[in-house]
Structures are given as C-alpha cells and as structure tokens.
Design goal:
Elements lengths: L5 H5 L3 E6 L6 H13 L4 E6 L12 H12 L5 E3 L2 H4 L6 H12 L5 E6 H6 L14 E5 L11 H7 L17 E3 L9 H10 L2 H8 L5 H9 L9
Parallel strand pairs: 1-2, 1-4, 2-3, 4-5, 5-6
This protein binds adenosine-5'-triphosphate.
C-alpha cells in the first residue's frame, strides 16, 4: 500500500463549529482555520443553527445557508452540515453531538470549537456537562469580548479534562483545550448594525473585508439587514 505523507496520515477527526452565521464572516472562517492549525483534524464541519434558543429575530435558514455556501465554496477543509437546520424545534448542541457520535461511531475524535464568549456561556446550555461524553471542546480568545470569570461549576468540571490542542486527536472525546487565534474583530451583530445604518458602499468600507464579496453581494441583492441599496 502506498504510504501517506506523515502530515496527512497524522490527521484524525472532525472539528465542529456551530453558529447562527447571520451572516457568516471572516471571523468564523479564521476561527475554523486556527482550529485546523492547532489541532490536526481532517476538516471542520460548520453547523448553521436552526432555531438558536438564546437568540431571537434571526434571518431565515435558507439565507444563512446560502451565504455560508458562498463563503466556503472554495474551502476544501470546511464542510457545511445542515443537520441542525433540518431539525424542528430549538437547536441544542447536546442533541447535535449525540446524533453525530451515533453517525461516526465511538472511535472518531470530534472537537467542538468555541469562541471564548460561547465558552464562558457554556454552563447555560442544555445538559452542558454531558457534552464531553460525546466530544472534546476547544476554545480560543475572541477580540472584543469582555472576559468575565469562568463560572464556578465549570471550573470544577474542567479541572481534570485540560490537555494540549494537538493531543485531542488521540482519543474520541472528553478533553478540553485552549488554542490560539490571531485576533479578529468581526462580529455578525456589528455587521448587521453597520449595514442597517450606512449606505451599502460605505458599510462595506467600514466592515473592511469582514464579509466575503459574494456574501456582501447576496445581502445586497436580497435586501437583508435593512441594507440601503443606493
Ligand atoms: P452574533 O454577533 O449575531 O452573536 P457572532 O458573530 O458571534 O454572531 P455566531 O454565529 O454566533 O457569530 O458565532 C459562532 C461561533 O464563532 C461562536 O463560537 C463565536 O464565539 C465564534 N466567533 C464569531 N466571531 C468570532 C471572532 N471574530 N473571533 C473568534 N471567534 C468568533
């Protein structure tokens, strides 16, 4: 059998990046790329949320999915997983990871990727402490996030699970790692606010490359976020 190059042979497992992606921006893609650099994963799967239970008034799933498709069209290491979009009712990550674990079997490393805002919010999620029965968690800093202290119940839960990011692929689930990402200020809230308050051309200048050009064009042609078309 032909030998694989060692870098290829060493890669195992999947990264899972959930989000509202309303809209997808370069911060999301940099987060996924940073995870791939820190953890030798085969690829990152992007999970657009169906009905995020902690957010109200989001764009339709089809718009968010179309924008995501445009953004990752030429990104072979990113794949869109529509399982959360297809599920009826509120989107809970615990359901997603349970289903995925059943699909891929017990051996494949699965790594849930989080920005620090989500990491610090984790203990508000449904059945959050069970997540590591199905996946690892890898989190990284997010520019502009005011870091509040990690909740007490999370500190105790994390204590015996911490490991290095590259070690996550040595087992299927159960560990927690921090990884580095070059700071990126993009946020979907800021994008929506800018688009709704500035003429399109000016908004694009203000956003300074936070949006894939095809996604920006999609927002304009579908009149999303109160875009001013002139
Ligand atoms: P919103 O502003 O609407 O809350 P968002 O920009 O935070 O949206 P989400 O889709 O909610 O985007 O985020 C999905 C994941 O990506 C979360 O784990 C979040 O922490 C992370 N993330 C988003 N933007 C960045 C960024 N600029 N740097 C690092 N992580 C990010």
């Amino acid at each position: 059998m032909r030998n694989l190059p060692s870098t290829l042979a060493a890669k195992r497992g999947l990264g899972l990046l959930g989000g509202t992606f309303d809209p997808v921006h370069t911060g999301h893609l940099c987060l996924a790329s940073a995870a791939l650099s820190a953890i030798p994963l085969v690829r990152v799967e992007l999970f657009p949320a169906g009905e995020p239970w902690q957010k109200s008034r989001i764009s339709s799933g089809i718009h968010r999915l179309n924008m995501l498709r445009i953004a990752v069209e030429y990104e072979p290491l990113f794949r869109i997983n529509t399982s959360e979009l297809c599920r009826i009712g509120p989107t809970y990550t615990i359901d997603t990871v349970k289903n995925l674990r059943e699909e891929v079997g017990p051996a494949m490393p699965l790594v849930l990727i989080l920005g620090i805002d989500q990491w610090l919010n984790l203990s508000t999620w449904k059945n959050w402490a069970e997540l590591t029965n199905y996946v690892h968690i890898a989190y990284c800093c997010r520019e502009g996030t005011v870091e509040k202290p990690i909740p007490d119940q999370q500190i105790a839960w994390v204590a015996d699970k911490i490991t290095a990011p590259e070690a996550l692929i040595q087992m299927p689930a159960g560990r927690i790692a921090h990884f580095e990402m070059a700071p990126h200020r993009a946020s979907a809230t800021e994008i929506r606010r800018t688009i709704s308050t500035q003429p399109y051309a000016q908004a694009m200048k203000t956003l300074d490359g936070w949006l894939h050009p095809g996604v920006a064009q999609y927002i304009r042609s579908h009149g999303l976020y109160g875009v001013m078309r002139h």
